[in-house]
């Protein structure tokens, strides 16, 4: 199992709650590896091998005016120049119905992989993982009785022969005792219920104000960036203001939420879920505010597109007439692709924004770990000898591993990948590299720079909670992509769907030209809205029925456990008496 010993080492020193993050990271890496295989094998490689070569058509060459600076670092860092006109983005792909000697249907493959492959596979694997986790949770025995006795007399593994493994097991048993002690203390805690309710309401009001302010700030900077994009010679900050502000909000808001959450005094496990939900609301609100502002920019570009389309046709017409009028040739030579006026390829613009957000998130995460964890730990460790107070026991001390922030960072990043992969097929490859390096980088950081939480707690059912958030953001990631596919016209001179009124027209075109008339008629009947609505209603009723059956089974299971426990307490003393006699 990949990285199993590394994760076990983290779990033995920091508890199952921290280890659950690395298990989740490993699972995400596997999912993204499959998605990258689908996109790379069925979209990128066929276009590179069988599609038109670079420079042969306008969409596959840098415009003449941009060529002198197309390889500058500042241009490439903004994903412009040669990177913008590469297979990394939507605009590079040609709209030929078939390519190569295999007659490969690239537009259809792009649509099916980008929509059905990415979202269908992700939905299937998330639901399957949730079902497996639920099955494992119900399969565990009742650990509420004789907890400390079970841990004391049955925790050690007598087959251990390696000293390092023995040390990890010893640390793991110690950590499990700390987890159980926290659970026992929470179950016996007395509190002033009225004061606690007031503090929790106050904390939620403060966090709601933070969320609203964050959304307004994102909308403001996105609208301002659209003004900057129309200006010449703007600075580095103006070009990257949106990414910087979103990264800073993601860096500073979670610690602020955690400070406010101290007023609520929840059980650490419940507090973690509240913290996850709030950070999820922060990230999701920021992302959707960013998308709404970006859609306004897309609509402006669609308005400009009609003008550019007319200019392009007029340029072709003028060029051909002038060339023919010179008498040089009856058929004028073709115009150089680099000189053809381009329309605003809004799909590539959206893809670039998602790639920028992903790369800036990677850099901010890695720099935060390096400065906030490693350099802080070095300062506390070596300066403590000559400081006027104990840095390890007091301020700033060593940092704890931020479970909620890191988990939500993964989920938020995956949501950006799901939204942006349709417009930037290479985005999944960037995410695969990010997850691979994160496993090694963060496991090194947590073992070298962090200390265990003061209140170590079990990660009971946390994995399923993570999956629930991931399923929610998967559903919310489908909505903007479905909106653009069903409602917005594709750019007229870039991408595999150029020349069509809507992107989904590629399906109708394929059914009409490649399927027998009978099959096309059957598919047309299946696409009837009345049939689709009926099927959705049946699915909802089936889900409701299965959920009711599952709840009934859980109730019966709990009752059987109670009866078995009663039988045990009744007959066990009798058995002891018989044995003694």
TrEMBL record:
It is found in: Membrane. It comes from the Eukaryota. Residues 345-460 form the TMC domain. The keyword Membrane applies. Coiled coil: none annotated. One of its GO terms (cellular component) is plasma membrane. GO terms for molecular function: mechanosensitive monoatomic ion channel activity; voltage-gated calcium channel activity. The keyword Transmembrane helix applies. It holds the Pfam family TMC. GO terms for biological process: detection of mechanical stimulus involved in sensory perception of sound; vestibular reflex. Keywords: Membrane, Transmembrane, Transmembrane helix. The chain crosses the membrane at residues 21-45, 108-127, 201-222, 242-263, 275-295, 416-437, 465-486, 522-546. InterPro entries: TMC, TMC_dom. It is a multi-pass membrane protein. Belongs to the TMC family. PANTHER family: TRANSMEMBRANE CHANNEL-LIKE PROTEIN 2, TRANSMEMBRANE CHANNEL-RELATED. This is Transmembrane channel-like protein. It comes from Anolis carolinensis (Green anole).
């Amino acid at each position: 199992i990949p990285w199993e010993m590394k994760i076990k080492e983290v779990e033995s020193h920091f508890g199952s709650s921290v280890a659950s993050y690395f298990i989740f990271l490993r699972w995400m890496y596997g999912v993204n590896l499959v998605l990258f295989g689908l996109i790379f094998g069925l979209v990128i490689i066929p276009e590179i091998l069988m599609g038109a070569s670079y420079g042969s058509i306008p969409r596959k060459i840098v415009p003449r005016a941009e060529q002198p600076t197309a390889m500058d670092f500042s241009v490439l860092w903004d994903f412009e120049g040669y990177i913008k006109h590469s297979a990394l983005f939507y605009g590079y792909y040609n709209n030929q119905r078939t390519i190569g000697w295999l007659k490969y249907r690239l537009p259809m493959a792009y649509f099916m992989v980008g929509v059905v492959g990415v979202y269908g596979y992700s939905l299937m694997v998330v639901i399957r993982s949730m079902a497996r986790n639920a099955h494992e949770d119900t399969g565990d025995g009742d650990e509420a009785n004789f907890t400390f006795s079970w841990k004391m007399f049955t925790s050690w593994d007598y087959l251990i022969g390696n000293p390092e493994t023995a040390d990890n097991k010893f640390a793991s048993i110690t950590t499990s005792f700390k987890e159980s002690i926290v659970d026992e203390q929470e179950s016996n805690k007395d509190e002033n219920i009225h004061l606690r309710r007031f503090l929790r309401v106050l904390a939620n009001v403060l966090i709601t104000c933070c969320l609203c302010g964050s959304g307004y700030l994102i909308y403001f900077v996105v609208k301002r960036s659209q003004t900057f994009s129309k200006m010449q010679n703007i600075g580095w900050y103006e070009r990257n203001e949106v990414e910087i502000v979103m990264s800073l909000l993601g860096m500073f808001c979670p610690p602020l939420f955690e400070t406010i959450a101290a007023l609520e005094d929840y059980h650490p496990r419940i507090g973690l879920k509240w913290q996850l939900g709030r950070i999820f609301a922060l990230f999701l609100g920021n992302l959707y505010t960013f998308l709404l502002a970006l859609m306004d920019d897309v609509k402006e570009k669609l308005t400009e597109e009609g003008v550019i389309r007319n200019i392009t046709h007029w340029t072709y017409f003028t060029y051909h007439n002038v060339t023919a009028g010179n008498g040089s040739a009856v058929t004028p030579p073709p115009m150089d692709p680099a000189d053809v006026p381009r329309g605003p390829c809004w799909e590539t613009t959206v893809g670039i924004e998602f790639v920028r957000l992903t790369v800036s998130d990677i850099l901010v995460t890695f720099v935060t770990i390096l400065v906030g964890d490693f350099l802080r730990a070095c300062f506390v460790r070596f300066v403590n000898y000559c400081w006027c107070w104990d840095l390890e026991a007091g301020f700033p001390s060593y940092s704890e591993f931020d479970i909620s922030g890191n988990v939500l960072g993964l989920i938020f990043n995956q949501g950006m990948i799901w939204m942006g992969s349709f417009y930037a097929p290479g985005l999944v490859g960037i995410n695969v590299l990010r997850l691979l390096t994160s496993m090694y980088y963060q496991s090194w950081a947590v073992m070298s720079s962090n200390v265990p939480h003061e209140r170590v707690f079990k990660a009971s059912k946390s994995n399923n909670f993570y999956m629930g958030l991931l399923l929610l953001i998967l559903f919310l990631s489908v909505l903007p992509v479905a909106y653009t596919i069903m409602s917005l016209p594709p750019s007229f001179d870039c991408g595999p769907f150029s020349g069509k009124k809507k992107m989904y027209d590629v399906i109708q075109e394929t059914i009409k030209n490649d399927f027998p008339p009978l099959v096309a008629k059957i598919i047309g009947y299946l696409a009837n809205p009345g049939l689709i609505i009926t099927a959705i209603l049946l699915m909802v009723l089936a889900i409701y029925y299965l959920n009711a059956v599952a709840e009934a089974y859980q109730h019966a299971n709990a009752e059987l456990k109670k009866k078995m426990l009663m039988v045990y307490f009744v007959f066990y003393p009798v058995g002891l008496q018989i044995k003694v006699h």
